[in-house]
Amino acid sequence: METRLQEIRARGNRDIKISIIPGHFATNHSHVNYYVDLTGIKSRHKMARAAAGELAKKYITTTAIDTIICLEGTEMIGAFLADELSAAGARNMNSGSDLCVLTPETNSNNQMIFRDNTQGMVWGKNILLLIASVSTGKTINRSVECLQYYNGRLAGIAAVFSAAREAAGLPINAIFTEKDIPGYRTSPTMDCEQCRNKLKIDAIVNSFGYSKI
């Protein structure tokens, strides 16, 4: 499977790159015809910093942000993003701010929750939701429900890769989109064309990576 790996660099910053593998992959919510590998961006500090700088451009002069909620292992990017957004500058909306970077807990019912000691970082705050990859948008919807429960105000949605253009009434600010992966498709399991054609699944994928079948 790895022999099919291709590398794609971001249009806005050539130092930011992802790997993609064509095939037949099953996620929790759908089947996709490409595995998008974001391991480097989430794990290597130089690329994480570059990704944060690219994502910050959308908000730095326009959007008040108090807390960055990190999903799918994006904590390193989130920390660099907080640094970018709070940097000193006359045109910087959040200049000098002490932004919070937080990851929700998932309980036994697969619901996102915040414990009492962290709820103050969400309640009544302007929230930037940071996610690694968006295919169907279901994870974002679940996150928005969580934020509404804790009275957080969703100010923006940022992603490294997104096949969706908007969610919860807001545009998704993504470094890579489906336009960077020609022919990218995501479909419900029951409507998967590759399943209908009896093509075997290459791997089970989630935010941690893939497990070959």
Structural features, described:
The protein is of the alpha/beta class and 213 residues long. The chain has helices spanning 39-43, 45-56, 75-85, 116-119, 138-149, 193-196; strands spanning 6-9, 17-26, 31-37, 67-70, 100-102, 105-106, 112-113, 126-134, 153-162, 166-167, 170-177, 186-187, 203-206, 209-212. Helix 2 (45-56) packs across helix 3. The mean pLDDT is 93.
Describe the structure in brief:
By secondary structure, the chain is of the alpha/beta class.
Features:
single chain, 213 residues, alpha/beta, six-stranded mixed sheet, 6 helices, 14 strands, globular
- Report the count of strand segments: 14
**Spans with pLDDT under 50 lasting ≥5 residues?**
none
- Principal-axes shape call: globular
Structure classification = alpha/beta
| Amino-to-carboxy terminus distance | 11 Å
Percentage of residues in helical conformation: 10-25%
Write the layout of secondary structure elements.
Layout: E1 6-9, E2 17-26, E3 31-37, H1 39-43, H2 45-56, E4 67-70, H3 75-85, E5 100-102, E6 105-106, E7 112-113, H4 116-119, E8 126-134, H5 138-149, E9 153-162, E10 166-167, E11 170-177, E12 186-187, H6 193-196, E13 203-206, E14 209-212
Parallel strand pairs: 2-13, 4-5, 4-8, 8-9, 9-11
Antiparallel strand pairs: 1-2, 2-3, 3-12, 6-7, 10-11, 13-14
Helix pairs in contact: 2-3
